[in-house]
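Continuing the batch. This is chain 6 of the set; chains 1 through 5 are on the previous pages. Same settings as before, nothing changed between runs. Recording input and output for traceability.
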Amino acid sequence: MIQVYAKADAAGRVEELGSSVFLKDPSGWTLIDEGEGDRYAHAQGNYLDKPLTGEDGTHNYMLDGSTIREATSEEKEAEKAAFPQPEPSREEQLEAQVAALQSQVDALLGVSE
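Output for chain 6:
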């Protein structure tokens, strides 16, 4: 029998799948299933119906104990909300500096809107 293992992050999002065929040390992994065939031997690409992550970068599966289930839309939205926001572009930074400088100049000249 070939064992299928999953590795999840602290929130339970499945980050990796592996099989006993390729995984030499299952420490830190959770045994989720066992069987025969490519589905088990090549679990990373064949075991689940969807990829581990969606196009938006959120995880499609959660690990509950030794069971994998699809992530709910609420879990995916919470994950997406926690993504770091992109840094402003150089142009956006420059525009903010120009606006701040203009406000200072207006204040010094006593210009009000």
